[in-house]
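Quick one: examine this chain and its backbone structure tokens and tell me how the chain folds. Here goes:
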Amino acid sequence: MSTPAAPPVLRTTIGDFPLSACRVRVGARELSILHTNAVISLEEEVRFLHHTDTRAPYGVVLWPAAIALAHEIATRADEFRGKTVLELGAGTGLPGLVAAALGASVVLSDRSDLIVDVCRMNGERNNAAGVEYRVADWEEWVDVTRYDWIIGSDIRLVAQ
């Protein structure tokens, strides 16, 4: 695999956030996932959620449940190969991109253009095949497709 380009800076209306790359091995492949921050411990999560003045957009943080879900998918390669997968609240896209690396056709969805753009960057960065990127709100879902798998992690419902 060729070395991916240096991570860019995510420019938003609330500030600029440097993106870091996390490398994840899936079988013989290594994925490189861009994110603004990785939250691994409870202390890091509390610190992130309570410092709103410096907080990066929620969806481009690499959260523990996304890492755990990606690991679980990787251990079930035969169950995802050739299947259709919908990821709700995809964020960085890690679990869905792992499923795509295993041969699934994947729809990565999130409600924010910004977050879907980062998700798309991650797919392109990893030459992900069979992936569609969709801005969508699952509270107002209109897709009638039947998926073999619907996955999601660290999904946050926002009251309107």
Notes: Helices lie at 42-50, 64-74, 77-80, 94-101, 113-125. Residues 86 and 145 are 10 Å apart (CA to CA).
